Amino acid sequence: MAVSRKDCSNMIFLYVIFLVALKTIHNPKFVNGDVTLIGHVCRETAYPVDCNNCLDSNPLSSRADVKGLAGIAINCSYALATDVDNQLRALTGYNQYQYTFCLQQFDSIVQNLSLALQSWKNNQYRDSRNLVEKALGAYFKCLKSLNKPSDLDTLFVVLAKTRISFQNSFGVLAQISS
């Protein structure tokens, strides 16, 4: 199964939602994470459907403010990155060698997202945003190192979803950190 431009574009959505959510948090009229707030935050992203799927996947989102939604977005990114990291670790033989660089990058990504969650919990939103941005940079390094897409179709789909999530998290954090 080949990865389409749409799949890759979906990763951009995560980045944008993250920025939008961070901006929205400074708007005092958005206090509760009700459907209206989630809709507004997600509407301001490049991939509103993916944003809604992430935020709606957590029952706490209905009571969260934008800061809370940022945490949920980071958790979505962390879960996806951990899944990719585990998939890369499961590869053996030639594939494992081919993915060694990506595995190193995803180790860094998982660590940075874990630190981003900790920074978010400590109300250090700018630090959290910077760590998500660092994770996104490592993601692109991994993607650039993969030069045989025909062999990596399944992985590329998961990578695309991961990038979308990172970009959404970044977009949400951008709304609460200046």
Protein model, in words:
The protein is an all-alpha fold and 178 residues long. 75% of the residues lie in helices and 0% in strands. It is built from eight helices and no strands. The chain has helices spanning 5-24, 35-43, 48-56, 66-90, 93-98, 100-121, 125-145, 153-173. Helix 1 (5-24) packs parallel to helix 8, helix 4 packs antiparallel against helix 6 (100-121) and helix 4 (66-90) packs antiparallel against helix 8. It is globular, with a radius of gyration of 16 Å. The termini are far apart. Residues 24-33 have low confidence and may be disordered.
N-to-C span = 40 Å
Q: Secondary-structure element order, as H and E?
A: HHHHHHHH
Look at the structure and give the mean pLDDT.
Answer: 75
Structural class: mainly alpha
Uncertain runs are 24-33
Write down the CATH topology.
Butyryl-CoA Dehydrogenase, subunit A, domain 3
Instruction: Report the radius of gyration as a whole number of Å.
Output: 16 Å
Please indicate the count of domains: 1
Beta fraction: under 5%
What is the fourth-level CATH superfamily? Answer: Invertase/pectin methylesterase inhibitor family protein
Give the proportion of residues in helices.
Answer: over 70%
Spell out the key features of this protein:
single chain, 178 residues, mainly alpha, Butyryl-CoA Dehydrogenase, subunit A, domain 3, 8 helices
